[in-house]
Design the sequence.
């Protein structure tokens, strides 16, 4: 059992709290500036905190992680560029709401439900680390593959006007993720002799290009007038109204924790799954989903922040990182001579307490900095397009370069920006492509592992799909495909 | 963009995806044969699966294009978009020669002016101050390498 007093001793240690605060401020800017990612910031912190005490390093990193994941929503809402893949869903309703002059309302919901999601995630980490990780342990390679495929089809159905266009976007993203050295055989695949492609397509330049540079081009192609930039009117929202969605947000937070606990899935899948749940559960949203429904922001922001606590579960108990940031945190442990695993919580309870304390304190800084700094950050909207768009372009160039210090990544960002522009002009959502680039490698390796394992069995079909978890995931996938098919839609319309 | 052009664009998109799908199937099969491994271990198994998945989707887009009702396309300002693409390409290319500070300043100076900022003071101030602030923040304070 975790010593609550141990957590409190960290939470009341001035040095610890100050370092979480420093990390939180850094996370706020890193998350909000398009093209700068939380994983990039934490990766930089590993080198800076190399010689620090482990608890100091953890305090700073937890601040960056918690507030950085939230602040991706700031740029998603205010300028329609998600700060991180986790915030992609927030753009769907956040930006339309901001465009109607209700950005303060959108931000208030994002702040409050990111806070609730984070708290829930860390409470879950505190209470159910072991049971959830033991369930994740039962997942077979085919289950991981189906889970990712389910995530992609859900995204395709949610973000595109036509389901087939959403799926094409996902398929293209999967193709891009295949480029590089094959993880199983170690041979170059789809590189066409280009050496720089051997390292594969990095998600950062792809994300920056598809969402950042393509947004610049879209914005220019429509109009140079500044009228489209959302204005901020600080209409106060009553706490009672703000917390109206709290009971339902617990369900989204549960999804976030569960998805976070599954290695490889992470924030984007959690946000999309929660959003699709919201569309099913909330029968009468404030406005239709996709047009500025606060219910959509609530679902996405609760789930992606709850994912933080969830992603920590397999990282701490199984040494399997749940996402990119937890992979970097894992490296912090290794740098400091610690070995996470099934016995970690028992043998290194002080480190576990530091992580929990960092998470809880960080979530309070999220609330504080969110309400204090968000209205000021929104002033970026008052900058005219003729100035803002070139500045965003420069940030896109820096952001795509900084992740790997490769000029080739800047070129990739540029090409993905042009591709994203054409896709958006032709109503192909770029969100499924982004998610597919993130999940493609994991899907490939798990699919091949599943096929290899089944090939030695007599009944191959039963070996692949015969387990209860697999059957449930397959059923969910088939339902998603069927309910979005033309045949189903025609029948529904005829009724 | 005319209505007829838009109508046929969807068909062309579908045909392009169909060609991509067929090319990918051929690519996967040829490279798999050269790799001389079983399918269960083949690096080309998953690309083949994606290609097969893409085939009916591209046919669906062609079908949609054939059936599509005439629609008015949205506003499109081609010239500023093209200028931005060209200026960014030049900016990226020039960074290797001129360095981050100079190329960023020149890019900002040109593009802000082109996009309609009439005040020289504002344009020059942004073009000089923004790269310097970024340089101080990233290169000096955060030790992040700049292009």
Sequence:
């Amino acid at each position: 059992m975790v010593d609550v007093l141990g957590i409190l001793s960290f939470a009341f240690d001035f040095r610890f709290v100050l370092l979480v605060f420093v990390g939180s401020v850094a996370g706020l800017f890193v998350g909000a500036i398009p093209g700068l990612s939380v994983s990039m910031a934490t990766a930089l912190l590993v080198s800076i905190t190399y010689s620090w005490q482990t608890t100091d390093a953890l305090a700073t990193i937890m601040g960056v992680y918690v507030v950085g994941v939230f602040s991706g929503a700031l740029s998603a809402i205010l300028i329609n560029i998600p700060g991180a893949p986790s915030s992609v869903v927030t753009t769907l309703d956040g930006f339309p709401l901001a465009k109607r002059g209700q950005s303060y309302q959108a931000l208030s919901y994002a702040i409050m439900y990111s806070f609730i999601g984070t708290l829930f995630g860390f409470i879950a980490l505190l209470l159910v680390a072991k049971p959830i990780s033991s369930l994740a342990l039962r997942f077979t390679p085919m289950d991981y593959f189906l889970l990712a495929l389910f995530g992609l089809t859900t995204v395709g159905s949610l973000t595109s006007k036509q389901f087939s266009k959403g799926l094409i976007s996902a398929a293209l993203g999967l193709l891009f993720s295949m480029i590089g050295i094959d993880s199983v055989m170690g041979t170059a695949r789809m590189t066409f002799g280009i050496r720089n492609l051997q390292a594969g397509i990095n998600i950062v330049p792809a994300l920056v290009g598809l969402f950042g540079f393509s947004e610049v081009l879209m914005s220019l192609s429509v109009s140079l007038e500044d009228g489209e930039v959302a204005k901020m009117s600080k209409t106060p929202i009553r706490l009672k109204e703000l917390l109206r969605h709290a009971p339902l947000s617990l369900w989204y937070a549960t999804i976030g924790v569960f998805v976070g606990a599954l290695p490889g899935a992470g924030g984007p899948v959690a946000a999309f799954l929660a959003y699709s749940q919201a569309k099913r559960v909330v029968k009468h949203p404030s406005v239709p989903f996709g047009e500025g429904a606060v219910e959509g922001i609530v679902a996405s922001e609760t789930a992606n922040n709850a994912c933080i606590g969830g992603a920590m579960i397999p990282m701490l108990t199984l040494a399997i990182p749940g996402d990119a940031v937890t992979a970097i945190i894992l490296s912090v442990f290794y740098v400091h001579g610690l070995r996470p695993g099934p016995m970690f919580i028992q043998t290194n309870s002080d480190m576990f307490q530091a992580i929990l304390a960092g998470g809880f304190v960080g979530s309070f800084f999220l609330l504080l900095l969110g309400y204090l700094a968000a209205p000021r950050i929104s002033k970026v909207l008052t900058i005219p397009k003729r100035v803002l768009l070139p500045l965003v372009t420069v940030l896109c160039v820096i952001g795509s370069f900084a992740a790997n210090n490769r000029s080739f990544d800047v070129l990739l960002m540029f090409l993905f920006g042009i591709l994203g522009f054409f896709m958006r002009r032709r109503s192909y959502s770029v969100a499924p492509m982004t998610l597919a680039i993130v999940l493609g490698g994991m899907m490939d390796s798990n699919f091949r592992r599943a096929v290899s394992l089944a090939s030695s069995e007599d009944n191959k079909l039963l070996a692949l799909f015969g387990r209860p978890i697999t059957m449930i995931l397959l059923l969910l996938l088939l339902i998603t495909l069927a309910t979005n098919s033309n045949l189903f839609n025609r029948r529904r319309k005829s009724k | 963009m005319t209505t007829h052009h838009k109508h046929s664009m969807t068909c062309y998109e579908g045909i392009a995806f169909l060609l991509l799908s067929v090319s990918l199937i051929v690519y996967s099969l040829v490279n798999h044969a050269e790799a001389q491994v079983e399918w269960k271990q083949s690096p080309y198994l998953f690309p083949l699966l994606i290609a097969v998945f893409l085939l009916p989707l591209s046919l669906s887009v062609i079908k949609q294009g054939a059936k599509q009702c005439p629609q008015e396309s949205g506003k499109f300002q081609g010239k500023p978009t093209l200028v931005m693409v060209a200026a960014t390409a030049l900016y990226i290319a020039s960074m290797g020669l001129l360095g981050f500070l100079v190329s960023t300043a020149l890019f900002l100076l040109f593009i802000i002016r082109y996009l309609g900022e009439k005040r020289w003071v504002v344009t020059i101030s942004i073009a000089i101050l923004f790269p310097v602030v970024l340089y101080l923040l990233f290169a000096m304070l955060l030790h992040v390498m700049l292009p």
